Amino acid sequence: MKILLVDKDRDFLDQLSIRLYNYGYQTDFAESVAAAEDRYMQSLNDQERIGLIIFDLDLTEQEADLVLKQLRSMHPSDAPGGFQPVPVIFLTASAGVWFESLDKRFDDFIVKPYDIVSLIKVVKSKMALFQERDHS
Q1: Which positions of the chain have pLDDT values less than 70?
Q2: Cα 46 to Cα 36: distance, rounded to the nearest angstrom
Q3: Which end of the chain has fewer CB atoms within 10 angstroms, the N or the C?
Q4: Following DSSP, what letter does each residue of 22-55 receive, concatenated?
């Protein structure tokens, strides 16, 4: 399964992709929420489906909530084939109170600057959980 990286900064995407590749993960890119949604929907028909999304966008609480609702509605857990919602991790430089208010709706967030080992631990955990749910 692939990890979809979403950020406006292509250099950051390239750097994060290389780091994740060094830990054995394949990645795909999107530079906007709309592009992320398109890539995710395309991956549902691919052999290498997206099993995790990492966002590093400056989003307001309303934007983040909308993104999460859209991603969750694309493939609800009762969809044919039993697909589970893809886990979503936010990378953020400013984990304010609103991130805590969204805590129940997304799978995790990591405050920047982040430690790659810590990020990999979260990635492994979320990918394993998604694969377990997706194959049960």
Answers
A1: 57, 59-61, 72, 74-84, 94-106, 133-136
A2: 15
A3: C
A4: HTT-EEEEESSHHHHHHHHHHHTTSSS-EEEEEE
In tens, the pLDDT along 59-88 reads: 666 777 777 777 767 654 544 444 567 888
Q: Phi and psi for 6 in degrees, rounded to 5?
A: -125, 120
CB atoms under 10 Å from CB of 95, counted, come to 14
CA 44 from chain center: how many Å? 15
Which residues, 6+ apart, have CB-to-CB distance to 42 below 8 Å? none
Provide φ and ψ at 60, rounded to 5°.
-75, 170
Q: Which residues contact 79 (CB under 8 A, 6 or more apart)?
A: none
Domain boundaries, the chain: 2-134
Under CATH, domain 2-134 is a member of which superfamily?
A: Response regulator (3.40.50.2300)
- Predicted model pTM: 0.81
Q: How far apart are CA 75 and CA 102, in angstroms?
A: 20
